[in-house]
Amino acid sequence: MARAATTTDVFNAIAEPRRRTIIDALAKGDQAVGQIMARLRIAQPAVSKHLGVLRKVGLVSVRKEGRRRLYRLNAQELRPVHDWAKKFEEFWTHQLDRIKDRAEKKMSDKSKQAAPKKGPK
Fold first, then answer.
1. Where on the phi/psi map is residue 29: left (φ > 0), alpha (ψ -120 to 50), or beta?
2. Distance linking the first and last C-alpha atoms of the chain
3. Would you call 73 exposed, middle or buried from its count of C-beta atoms within 10 A (0-12, 13-18, 19+)?
4. 31-59, pLDDT tens digit by residue?
5. Domains along the chain with CATH numbers
6. What are phi and psi of 72, to 5 degrees?
7. Which among 53, 11, 51, 58 has a CA at the least distance from the CA of 35?
8. How far apart are CA 25 and CA 106, in angstroms?
9. How far is residue 104 from each of residues 33, 77, 100, 107, measured CA to CA in Å?
């Protein structure tokens, strides 16, 4: 089966870890390519390539400010990813509840063991 192009949808675009890192950086505010390069220690051609993919799927937009181009995250375009992942939230919540219950039981058991036993004097 052929692999889908990275520019076909948001899921394919964010499958690449460096693009997710760029998205994280842009979540902090608009940035120029040079700022992204410095922050992520990625070469300019790679940053530009990844930004191109993110632009093509609509996750990133660009505007000119003088000689610079500032990139901005279009976070609303991540909605399909959020909606898809939300379907699995009940599994995470269930697991966290189980961990919490076990921890509370363990603490309760420890406090019962540590409590001094009162006996006849």
1. left
2. 80
3. buried
4. 999 999 998 899 999 999 999 999 999 99
5. 1-100 (1.10.10.10)
6. -130, 140
7. 51
8. 40
9. 49, 40, 6, 5
Question: pTM score, two decimals?
Answer: 0.70
Vertex 63: Cα angle to 60 and 69 (nearest 5) = 95
Residue 42 φ/ψ, nearest 5 degrees: -120, 140
Name residues whose C-beta falls within 8 Å of residue 37's C-beta, 6 or more positions apart in sequence: 43, 44, 47
Phi, psi values for residue 8, rounded to 5°: -80, -35
Residue 103 in tokens: 């921890």
Q: In residues, how long is the chain?
A: 121
